Amino acid sequence: RTHFTPPAVIVGLDSIQGLQVARIFHDRGVPVIGVAERSWFYACRTRVCEEIHICDTGTDDVIRLLESLGPTLPEKAVIVPCKDPAVLVVSKHREQLASWYHIVLPDHGLVEDFVDKERFYRVAEKAGLDTPQSFALRTESDAEDCAQRAAFPLVLKPPNRDFGWNQITKKKALLIDTPDDLIAAFHHYHPFAPVLIAQEWIGGSDADLLTCNVYFDKSGRQVSSFVSKKIRQYPPRFGQGCLAVPVRDDEVAAATQRIYEMVGWRGFGYMEMKRDPSSGRLVAIEPNVGRPTGRSAMAEANGVDYHLAMYCDAIDAPLPPQLRQTDRKVKWIHFLRDVQSALHYIRSRELTIGGWMRSLRGPKAFAVFSIRDPMPFLSAIWHALPVLLSARERGSHDYSPHE
Fold first, then answer.
1. What is the rounded CA–CA span in Å between residue 340 and residue 264?
2. Per-residue CA distances from 55 to 60, 64, 401 (Å)
3. Whether pLDDT at 2 is above 80
4. Distance CA 214, CA 222 (A)
5. Which of 153, 164, 154, 159 has its CA nearest to residue 189?
6. How big is the CA angle at 200 (ends 290 and 145), to the nearest 5 degrees?
7. Which of 62, 135, 141, 299 could form a disulfide with 226 if both were Cys (CB 3.0 to 4.6 A apart)?
8. Rounded to an integer, what distance in angstroms lies between the CA atom of residue 224 and that of residue 322?
9. How far is 198 from 150, CA to CA, in rounded Å?
10. Does position 281 have pLDDT exceeding 70, yes or no?
11. Which of 45, 39, 40 is nearest to 19 (CA)?
12. What CA–CA distance (Å, rounded) separates 103 from 78?
């Protein structure tokens, strides 16, 4: 394997994407330094990091840590933020960090536009993407107006999941069935999220969700693109993917490229879209920006050096040769989550045990399990089992121990 000397600093190691990127870089000869805020999290049991630092990765605490770490590094390192709060804080303070770190991100205003869902939909409409009908709810009057005008069911979610939202729920979004439910949900969640987005619900199942990961180099040129679709997610409807497969979809790839090219993007980009099975309508749901995503590691499993492209671009090294999607069909699975998702669908009679087993056939890339780095998976099981057993006794299926 090739050996590189500039370290990669993974800010947000305590996440699926943080663990996966750390392993990918380590396997390609890149020294890895982890930064996490939860030392107990299973990803922090990985053996691939040369050192792991603990601090709050979404506040100025991480900037102070990076400033103290910078002068001790053998050479200028590459920062890889792996969570939205980390992307925002690193982007905001990029000039403070520039002496010690390579940072590939678009202008900070663009980062904020894409992290905030209300602002993102305005950008998406300018790019000609179809978006769900949306209402910004700031006051009770806004909620009442939406209750009268919107079609139900609809989706309710915050513009971004900040600390206030996460205090009251771990759910990404809520499905609201009636106008009365909308008013009640507004009163319940508004104290924790000053703005709420009420959005048209696009029909279909988890398998109608398609995603496209892209990378734009420092000159603004798209150099990599990878399209996949979810098979299942957990929690169902509004969760994170737990089983996915690569697909070729030119419409999704073109729409994603169009919006990022329009704004002059730099770095990692990602678009989640949903195709309504009844009409064929393709709708932009949400982006992830400036960071790897949970399923972006599927690109490497299918022969695309997506993450290494970012590292090489940052240090001005030649880009890896394989950056375009191939015809390989390696699935990506977060096994522990997929068990939970499958149990939900089996209990609701939307899936059979045989159907679940058939969906697992074929070559797979695992999100957490690794025979060469087994401790994160073992730690995840150790932490999950007591709560899963307790949830089973209570008849509850809402617990999700992994991010």
1. 40
2. 10, 10, 21
3. no
4. 7
5. 164
6. 115
7. 299
8. 9
9. 9
10. yes
11. 45
12. 6
Residue 153 contacts residue 146 (beta carbons within 8 Å): no
The pLDDT value given to residue 391: 47
| pLDDT (tens digit per residue) in 352-390 | 999 999 999 999 999 999 999 999 999 999 887 765 555
Q: State residue 168's pLDDT score.
A: 75
Residues 252, 206 contacting (CB under 8 angstroms): no
Structure tokens at 16: 């699926």
Residue for token digits 């709060």?
85
Average pLDDT, the chain: 91
Asked if 71 contacts 93 with a C-beta cutoff of 8 angstroms, the reply is: no
Kindly give the pairing relationship between strand 8-11 and strand 209-216: unpaired
174-225, pLDDT tens digit by residue? 899 999 999 999 999 998 888 999 999 998 889 999 999 999 999 999 999 9
Rounded Cα distance, 203 and 278, in Å: 8
342 to 206, 245, 265, 275: CA distances (angstroms):
12, 16, 37, 22
Does an H or E element contain 68, and which? helix 60-69
pTM for the whole thing?
0.90
- Cross-strand partners of 280: none
Q: Which amino acid is at 247?
A: V
Residue 67 gets the label, from left (phi > 0), alpha (psi -120 to 50) or beta, of alpha
Tokens of 32: 């890895």
Under a CB-based contact definition with an 8 Å cutoff, are residues 222 and 309 in contact? no
Instruction: Take residue 280 and report the two structure tokens written for it.
Output: 């064929």
- Tell me whether the omega of the peptide bond preceding residue 85 falls within 30 degrees of 0, making it cis: no
What is the per-residue pLDDT for 271? 96
Backbone φ and ψ of 353, nearest 5°: -60, -40
Q: Which helix (H) or strand (E) holds 79?
A: strand 77-81
Q: Tens of pLDDT along 27-57?
A: 999 999 999 999 999 999 999 999 999 999 9
d(CA 315, CA 102): 7
Strand partners, 174: 156
CB 90 within 8 A of CB 253: no
pLDDT at 76 over 80: yes
C-alpha to C-alpha distance for 291 and 296, rounded to whole angstroms: 10
> Three-state DSSP class for 84?
helix
